[in-house]
Amino acid sequence: MVKLFCALAGVKGNAFSVTIDASESVGDLKKAIKKENEDITCAARKVELFLARMGDNTWLDRSGAEAVTLDENGHPEGFAHMDELNWIEDYYGEEFQPKRGEIHVLVVVPPSNKKQCLDWRSTRWGSHTYDPNSLYFVLDKEDVDESGLPPVRMMLYCRPTFSTASSSSCANEY
Predict the structure, then answer these.
(1) Can you give the residue ranges of the Crinkler effector protein N-terminal domain (predicted)?
(2) Which of 34, 124, 134, 149 is the Cys-Cys partner for 144 at CB 3.0 to 4.6 Å?
C-alpha cells in the first residue's frame, strides 16, 4: 500500500491523502480520490490526474499545488498526464516512500455545467405576478428557456408558507 497526497489543481486548502495498492490502476486511483474527497461530484472517469512532479524531479508542496494554473484545455501547465490504463507503480515505482509536505497527484475536475439559480429580476421577461390565493404558479416556456430547465411550460406548486412569505416580504420588491 502507498499513501499519495493529492490536491485539486489551483485550489487553496484542499490537500488530502489516498491510500491505495501501487499495483492498482490509475483508473482505480481516480475512484479512490472521488470517494475520499466529497468536493468531487462528477463521475470518477471524468476526473483527470497529473503527476505533481516538477521538471527538476521534485514534488510540489501545498503552496505549489495551490499556485498551479490551468491551460486553455483545463490541464495544469508543465505536468504529465496520468493514463488511467497504467499502473500506479508505473509513475511512482514499487518502493515509493512519500515525504512530509509533498503533493504527488494534481487532480482536475471538469467545470460544472449546472446553472445556479434563476434570478427573476434579471430575466428578459420582467417580473411575475403571484396570486396568493392560488396554490400554483405557472411559468411559460419563455420564462424557463434560458434557465437550464427544460424549455416547457411548467406549473409549480406553492406551499402555504411560500404564499405567506412572498406576500409579506417579496411582494413590494417588484
Answers:
(1) 2-108
(2) 149
